[in-house]
Design goal:
The protein is an all-alpha fold and 151 residues long. The protein contains five helices and no strands.
Amino acid sequence: MRNVNQNEGQPIHRLIAILDDAKKGYLNAAEKIKDEVLSLLFENFAYQKSRYSNELRQLVNRFNFSSSIDQFTLSLLYRTWTDLKATFKLGKRENIIQACIKGEETALENYTAAINQIQNNYEVKVVLEQQVNGIRTVLNTIKEYTGKTGM
């Protein structure tokens, strides 16, 4: 087991925070949306985010990634979560769907940045790339379903 510097660990911790927020967001969306199919999809997506977060936590433990996360990331996550909660309170289907799509697109951007930052750890890159594929599937599922129902 090798020690990794903080620069390699930081993007992983950022992704864990993003995934934890996404899980909360999807559970909230599942509760608020008045579409049974989307509600079930959102619950499944929340479960996926929880699984991904747990996988990354296991990598953190295995590779002794340092646990610090920068204040900017924390404030950004808080602001994003606050915006999403306000959107969900309105309960409008279109707003909830758009918030979920934006959340997935933002997650993909953060994953891409993390993969580019982690240069020398093949195992971590493979896990991140697998999770990216899952996130793309979620994004496509939301877009396809809502496109078929006349969003």
